[in-house]
């Protein structure tokens, strides 16, 4: 686990108005931080700078006390879950979840891979579906496979980019409960982008509000939604 400190982070695409403008947020070790704001306010850009998929124009990104601005994504030890799940269609559920372990060539024995995949699948109630392909799963099951892939290795933090936005209301409710449960069990530092007020209220320790690339507020859900 690790804290994530964003210090005066700026992102400029070309010479227009900055997509992210002088944003400073400290996410504590084990904290669950929600990121909200209207479409185009810079949420995805911020997540991508944290994982290293986007260069940082200015400011410091500090993860676990170490400045990571110049580190490649694979050297940051973070797990990201995308909105569109990004599963491999030709691989089974088992192999989709095992994928990050296979990437760390030679680091995990076959027995360790099996044990870790089984543990993740159990936590997400996927044990009965391990031999299926993504095409034969429901939306909620696919989303769980994407989460399984995120938790199968010991990442320092999780980054979620609207992971439930493609699900219907009922599944979203179930997944919300599951994410809560997973969070209590793992206690991993998390940054979670959402448009859903219920998710923000129930999952977050704190909620950061972005508007046009600028941080407006960062407070507990209670403080945020109970203010006049
Ligand atoms: P959000 O995730 O909150 O919807 P984004 O981070 O996707 O916001 O976008 C923030 C701003 O940056 C928007 O104005 C968007 O058009 C712009 N933007 C995002 N990605 C790129 C890119 N690759 N090139 C140029 N502009 C981009
Ligand atoms: P989101 O709903 O997460 O904000 P978008 O639909 O805005 O996603 O963007 C999807 C992809 O398109 C992102 O990878 C982003 O980098 C890219 N993108 C967004 N805005 C622009 C832009 N103005 N120019 C180039 N690429 C962009």
From TrEMBL:
Superkingdom of this protein's organism: Bacteria
UniProt keyword annotations, A-Z: ATP-binding, Cell membrane, Membrane, Nucleotide-binding, Translocase, Transport
UniProt-recorded name of the protein: Carbohydrate ABC transporter ATP-binding protein (CUT1 family)
Report the residue ranges that make up the ABC transporter domain in this protein. 4-228
Task: List, in alphabetical order, the Gene Ontology terms for molecular function in this entry.
Answer: ABC-type transporter activity; ATP binding; ATP hydrolysis activity
Q: Name one GO biological process term.
A: carbohydrate transport
Starting at the broadest rank, the lineage of the source organism is: Bacteria, Bacillati, Actinomycetota, Actinomycetes, Micrococcales
| Keyword Transport recorded | yes
- Positions spanned in the full protein: 1 to 228 of 417
């Amino acid at each position: 686990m690790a804290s994530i400190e964003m210090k005066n982070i700026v992102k400029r695409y070309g010479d227009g108005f900055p997509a992210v403008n002088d944003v400073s947020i400290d996410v504590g070790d084990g904290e669950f931080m929600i990121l909200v704001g209207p479409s185009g306010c810079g949420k995805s850009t911020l997540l991508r700078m944290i994982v290293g998929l986007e260069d940082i124009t200015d400011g410091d990104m500090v993860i676990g006390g170490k400045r990571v601005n110049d580190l490649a994504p694979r050297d940051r030890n973070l797990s990201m879950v995308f909105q569109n799940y990004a599963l491999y269609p030709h691989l089974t559920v088992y192999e989709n979840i095992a994928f990050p372990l296979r990437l760390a060539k030679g680091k995990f024995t076959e027995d360790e891979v099996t044990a870790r995949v089984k543990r993740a699948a159990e936590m997400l109630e996927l044990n009965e579906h391990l031999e299926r392909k993504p095409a034969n799963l429901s939306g909620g099951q696919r989303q769980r496979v994407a989460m399984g892939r995120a938790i199968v290795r010991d990442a320092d933090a999780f980054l979620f980019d609207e992971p439930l936005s493609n699900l219907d209301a009922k599944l979203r409710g179930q997944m919300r409960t599951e994410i809560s449960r997973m969070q209590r069990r793992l206690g991993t530092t998390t940054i979670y982008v959402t448009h859903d007020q219920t998710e923000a209220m129930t999952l977050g320790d704190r909620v950061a509000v972005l508007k046009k690339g600028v941080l407006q507020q960062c407070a507990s859900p209670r403080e945020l939604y109970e203010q006049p």
